[in-house]
Specification:
single chain, 13% strand, Rossmann fold, PGP-like_dom2, 6 strands, alpha/beta, HAD-like_sf
Length: 207
């Protein structure tokens, strides 16, 4: 079985950034613009692509959406997310994000960022606050998924990462711990709990 690791990949949303309130506000604005009275809160546990999420939300209000409309809606959602992040300083990192990234770099791992937004623009925003170099990737495009550790906070994200053969840590920052524990190889309540030494020991035992 696999016993090496070269890359650590994290989604920006929900693992590195605590941006759920911002995304909820944008969703509320989009719904109001369509004359839909929004609920006070929407579930972000499911994960999946933003396009799938928006389709599900609109269907929950009994609104049908064409593929063309959904494309426009997703683009608008991404644009507003990007614009709002540019006006937030510092970015809403989880408290342990920077320490975790520093530890990963000190271990010699390459860092990957999973996002559906404009990756280069996000990297420019991030580089002003964190000094580490990232590549932008998607789980289906990983060069060596079996040598990649993915940290995920949604069920679909965990399932996608496991489906390509990556090691997966479920981070219970968006959903209950027992949910992520059930689907990932390992589970933690936050990035602060991740123990690199224990992970290397577990990895060596798989050799």
């Amino acid at each position: 079985m696999r016993s090496r690791l070269t890359t650590v990949v994290c989604p920006l949303s929900g693992v590195l950034l605590r941006d759920q309130p911002l995304r909820e506000n944008i969703l509320q604005e989009l719904l109001l613009a369509e004359n839909i009275a929004p609920r006070q809160q929407h579930s972000w546990y499911r994960g999946g692509s933003d396009r799938e999420f928006l389709r599900e939300i609109w269907h929950s209000y009994r609104r049908s959406v064409s593929e063309h409309y959904l494309t426009q809606l997703t683009q608008k959602y991404h644009t507003q997310c990007q614009q709002k992040l540019t006006h937030i300083s510092p970015l809403p990192w989880y408290p342990t994000t920077q320490a975790f990234l520093q530890q990963a770099q000190e271990q010699g791992y390459q860092l990957g960022l999973q996002t559906e937004q404009n990756g280069q623009e996000l990297l420019n925003l991030m580089n002003a606050e964190i000094p580490w170099s990232f590549s932008v990737t998607d789980y289906g495009d990983l060069a060596d998924p079996e040598a990649t550790l993915v940290l995920e906070s949604t069920l679909l994200g965990i399932q996608r990462a496991r489906a390509v053969g990556s090691w997966v840590v479920g981070v219970a920052q968006q959903m209950p711990y027992h949910w992520v524990q059930r689907h990932a190889h390992w589970a933690v309540d936050s990035l602060a709990e991740w123990d690199w030494e224990q992970f290397r020991t577990a990895l060596s035992a798989q050799a």
